[in-house]
């Protein structure tokens, strides 16, 4: 049987209650993920990791409000409150998350001019992060995704994982969403249609 990996998406303080871009009940995923991870041969984490002044921050665009959308060279980009700034406590993993067994921490969103929701491709949908190659080279074919946020980084990662040929499951009990303008229902539908197993 091919190896299976648990991919833990962005379980960082800024996405948990009290954080800069808090997802409702975000910290509830921590005990669920801690319970799941011992069953996987491979544990991989992603970390949203923006430089100060990142182009996805509303504060970088005079007059723009958080949660509005602006056109960028690579397509529409939602603007967020400043979050997950490199080296800050908000960018650290939730202190209760057990990531002792993690073999890879993949950082994303570190280029100032482009955001990256997916663990596989930046928001231009073309620039790879290297994760697909890493997984293939290590013989990992089955992925289970958990983390924050269901309708952004988890969903875009799951859609790209399927597109890259990985058998992909999202464990919804290990995820929480932002739900901006119906994004939760929309992204659950897109994942289901693409062949992601929603468990
Ligand atoms: C995320 C918005 C901005 C996420 C990251 O982890 O889902 N969402 N940056
Ligand atoms: Zn971000």
Structure notes:
By secondary structure, the protein is an alpha/beta fold. It has 4 helices and 8 strands; from the N terminus they run βαββββαβαβαβ. It has helices at 29-36, 131-137, 150-163, 183-194; strands at residues 3-9, 42-48, 69-72, 75-78, 102-108, 140-148, 167-176, 197-198. The strands form 2 sheets. It has a 6-stranded parallel sheet with strand order 5-2-1-6-7-8. A two-stranded antiparallel sheet has the order 3-4. Helix 3 (150-163) runs parallel beside helix 4 (183-194). The longest helix is centred in the last third of the chain and has 14 residues, at 150-163. Bound molecules: pyrazine-2-carboxylic acid (VGL) and zinc ion.
Secondary-structure element series: EHEEEEHEHEHE
Mean pLDDT across all amino acids: 97
**How many DSSP-defined strands?**
8
Distance between the termini: 21 Å
Strand line-up of the largest beta sheet? 5-2-1-6-7-8
Task: Give the strand content.
Answer: 25-35%
Query: Globular, elongated, flat, extended or rod-shaped: what is the shape?
Result: globular
Low-confidence stretches: none
State Rg. 16 Å
Q: Can you list the ligands bound to this structure?
A: pyrazine-2-carboxylic acid, zinc ion
